Amino acid sequence: MSERPDRIPEWCRGEEWCSVTATASLLGRKWKPVIVDRLLKNGACGFSELEGLINGISGKALSNNLKELEEDEIVNRSVISERPYRVEYALTDRGRDLEPLIVAMREWGSAHFGPDSKKDNP
């Protein structure tokens, strides 16, 4: 794992370790759960394919988030060919273990923000 200050060891200092804080620090950025969701739904993807599956993400944001997910052993990056240079991203076992959490996020989002939800928020 990288040595950035927002990583799990920094967030979980103190006498009591918090599993929610650890998970939130891993997936807490806007695009990370979306990337994991798309890889769960579609399997291994090339960069451009993955970018096309995520509405609104910039290439730079996708690249940065994939790099962090790779550092955290959630995503594996494999070079498929040198000419033309092509890489593929796939979830690791650790990444696939996030499926129940991602499914719960999908269901909660549909229930509270979907077209059939009974939301009172603007």
From TrEMBL:
Domain of life: Archaea
Pfam families assigned to the protein according to its UniProt record, in alphabetical order: HxlR (PF01638)
This protein's UniProt keywords: DNA-binding, Plasmid, Transcription, Transcription regulation
This protein's record includes keyword Metal-binding: no
Residue stretches making up the HTH hxlR-type domain: 18-117
GO molecular function annotations of the record: DNA binding
Keyword Membrane: no
Protein name as annotated: Transcriptional regulator
Organism whose genome encodes this protein: Haloferax mediterranei (strain ATCC 33500 / DSM 1411 / JCM 8866 / NBRC 14739 / NCIMB 2177 / R-4)
Lineage of the organism: Archaea, Methanobacteriati, Methanobacteriota, Stenosarchaea group, Halobacteria
